[in-house]
Amino acid sequence: MPKRTPSNPWTKPAGKPIEGKAIPRPRRTAEVQAYLPEFLRGMAITMRHFFKNTKEMMLGQKPDPVLEALNEGVTTICYPEEKRPYPERFRGLHRLTLRDDGSPRCVACLCCSTACPAQCIHIEAGEYAEGDKRRGYERYPKTFVIDELRCIFCGFCVEACPCDAIRMDTGIHATPYDSREQFIYRKDLLMEFTGRDGSRTSANPRHEPGDPTHPGLSREQMDH
Amino acid sequence: MSAVEIVLSVVKVLIMLLFFLNMAALCTWADRRQGAMVQDRVGPNRAVVHLPNMLARGIVLLPPALFGVLAIFSSLGALAGRAAAERFTVNVQLAILVGWFSLLVLCAKVRSGGAINKAEEMFADVDPRSFFFAGLGVHALGLVAGRLVPPASMPLAAQVSGFVLGGVFLIVALYATSRVPDGPIPLRLAGTLHAIADSIKMIWKEDFIPKNADRILHGLAPMLAVFSAIAVMAVVPFGPDLCFTDGNRNGTFDFSDLGNLVATVPASGACNGFLVKMQIIDLNVGILYIFGIAGTGIIGAAIAGWASDNKFALLGGLRASSQMVSYEVAMGLSLVGLFLVYGSVRMSDMAVWQGANAWGVFVQPLGFILFLTALCAETKRVPFDQPEGESEIVAGYFLEYSGFKWGMFMTGEYIELAFSSALLVALFFGGYSLPFLHADGITIAFGDTMLFQYKMTHLAVSIISALAFFGKTIFVTWVQIFFRWTLPRFRYDQLMKLGWTKLLPLAIANMMVTGVVVLALRNAGPAADSWLKLLADITQGFVAVATLAGFVALVVGLLEPVERKKFLASSAARFAAAMGGVKPEPQQA
């Protein structure tokens, strides 16, 4: 006995009529066929929209285009003059946060450049000078370079940073330049940017070694 | 033809040319603007000219200051009697108008730009509609108060009101000038500068001609297209005949007679001096000339399609020419009924007939619909824009055109749009005539019962009539542009079917029925004539009432407050709301 082929649900089962929803034919009444009443109705609709929108433009009652999900009305924004505010957690260009003395908080641990999937961060770590209390405890970035053309704005560097030294809260959209060289952001430029609140520091306080608030061991407390 | 007639002809040509060319430029803007407003976009408003600050201040200061000084100087001499009373009324009403309108503008500016002192803050809190309603109230109050002034002191009142008007103008001018912000002022004119920017761009763009194209025909085609669009406007009357008397009694019309416009003419419009027609040339073939010249537009499209050496252009040219040829038949036949009624093909006779009887749209409603359809197809605009289907044959017959030649095609198309509106007005919407406005003034009469009469001068009637013609043309153009944003386009076979199997038989039927009815009415006797006259007057009354109702509805609609339902859907929207909406600050980007 030959094996019966399983029925394909996507094709018509044998011997069964096709079941489906009957789509009614379009109404072809005399009114529709005459075209003119429908034409006048359409003109009335377009004119109503025209007058409503024109009036709102003229009266300055245009709805706020950023408050989307407005069901009607002119919702375009005139871009260079009017700008859409970015959400609070928008990832803009990077900045390097500063300590109270104006030096970068970065300790050149290379966590960010390691985490970066685009490999756009280049850091050369430097040792503090002999006698500096941070020497041997932490390092500083001699160079800190971000290639903003390669950056994919994923924010992994911010996540990876143990010192809250790199942030993307400048609110600045990537800017168009005319040469690739201009997209290479170096340490001094990155330190110049401020957050949206205008500060160059971060909200998290920094506990320097030696401070009474410093939770860990300091060089003096170490016995080895 | 005397020298003065040549000069007047040149002036008339200039009037028509300037009107239609400007209309074409404005239509390109209005087309986009209407589409934007219908489809909830912003539309063209980005073209901007930065005026130097001093120039902007000068523009704000000088015109109203000039009006103010004129008002004061013209009030220095005393007037007497009726003239003083009229001057007083006009002065008071103008002062009130300028007053409330300036306050309205100030309110709008303060609301958008911020107040600089306590008084302005007060204005910002007032609903702008209040200014309009208060203004209307003060207008009425001014009319009533004017009646209370005793006739003896009317000359003094006229003078004082003149000084007040001048003062209002000067105050407005000075205050507005002081409120002009520092720095260059961006001038946008609601986006109308786009047309200028576009034409400048088109002049300087490269004029690309395909390698194997016929260079002569390629250059000739746009000229033909524009020629046919411009040449047709010669026979359209844009105002009633002006009547001049022979001042120096030398029997010829010369320049010194131009100042001798007769004061009044009788209701029949009869003139026993020199007639100047407000029409470039009053041909006895009239409308046939228009059909003939408009037919040459086909040649432009066909040549453009042929000379471009491009399959799509050739197809577009074929489509354009076959479409125009087909609809020309229906267009001509749909008007024959109208000729039977008017008894003439001369354009000026048609305007006079409509002014004396009823508008063409009432005597030939079917003819109007047929003609309007055929006209839309002739101008090749939506829903009949088959020659340039983007998805089928790209831009059709002007696919291989660029720069100014392309601009000529587009200008020609928009001139045709404006001209087709002028033609509709001249044939079906009474030409330059307004309901109840006759050569001697306003006479509201139904049949033999006279309701109201107000005598006007020949000059006033002529100016109002000419303005009525241009106003109606602008309005009809505006409505025609709406077709584009309302109707989906036809398929090409539907287009041909509509033309040959619907419009043409209907036009012929219309023609035959009209002929029978006209013959029957002509033999019906005087009783039928008086009934027809009454019916005609009723249609005039209907037009007047409908216009007034439309105007009131427009004002009421504009004053109605806007209500919207808002709900915030995303975090970005909530954040923006917390920030206080969109602010034009660069930090936000």
From TrEMBL, chain A:
> What name goes with this protein?
NADH-quinone oxidoreductase subunit I
Keywords (alphabetical) are: 4Fe-4S, Cell membrane, Iron, Iron-sulfur, Membrane, Metal-binding, NAD, Quinone, Repeat, Translocase, Ubiquinone
E.C. number(s) listed in UniProt = 7.1.1.-
Q: Which gene encodes it?
A: nuoI
| Top EC group | translocase
User: What family is it from?
Assistant: Belongs to the complex I 23 kDa subunit family.
Record's keyword annotation contains Translocase = yes
Its Gene Ontology cellular component terms are: plasma membrane
Q: How is the cofactor bound here? A: Binds 2 [4Fe-4S] clusters per subunit.
Which annotated residues bind [4Fe-4S] cluster 2? Answer: 116, 151, 154, 157
Q: Where is the composition biased (Polar residues)?
A: 1-10
Asked if the keyword Nucleotidyltransferase belongs to this entry, the reply reads no
UniProtKB/TrEMBL annotation, chain B:
Molecular function terms in GO for this entry?
NADH dehydrogenase activity; oxidoreductase activity, acting on NAD(P)H, quinone or similar compound as acceptor; quinone binding
**Location in or out of the cell:** Cell membrane; Membrane
- Where, by residue number, does the polypeptide cross the bilayer? 6-29, 59-80, 92-110, 131-150, 156-176, 220-239, 287-307, 327-345, 414-439, 459-483, 503-521, 541-559
Q: According to Swiss-Prot or TrEMBL, what is its membrane topology?
A: Multi-pass membrane protein
Q: Which UniProt keywords apply?
A: Cell membrane, Membrane, NAD, Quinone, Translocase, Transmembrane, Transmembrane helix, Ubiquinone
Which superkingdom does the taxonomy of this entry point to? Bacteria
The record's Pfam families line, in alphabetical order, gives: NADHdh (PF00146)
Q: Which EC number applies?
A: 7.1.1.-
What are the recorded Gene Ontology BP terms? aerobic respiration
According to its UniProt record, where is this protein mainly located? membrane
A GO term from the CC aspect = plasma membrane
| Reactions listed under catalytic activity | a quinone + NADH + 5 H(+)(in) = a quinol + NAD(+) + 4 H(+)(out)
Known function:
NDH-1 shuttles electrons from NADH, via FMN and iron-sulfur (Fe-S) centers, to quinones in the respiratory chain. The immediate electron acceptor for the enzyme in this species is believed to be ubiquinone. Couples the redox reaction to proton translocation (for every two electrons transferred, four hydrogen ions are translocated across the cytoplasmic membrane), and thus conserves the redox energy in a proton gradient. This subunit may bind ubiquinone.
What is known about its subunit structure?
Answer: NDH-1 is composed of 14 different subunits. Subunits NuoA, H, J, K, L, M, N constitute the membrane sector of the complex.
Family note: Belongs to the complex I subunit 1 family.
Tell me the protein's name: NADH-quinone oxidoreductase subunit H
Taxonomic source organism: Polyangium spumosum
Q: Which gene encodes it?
A: nuoH
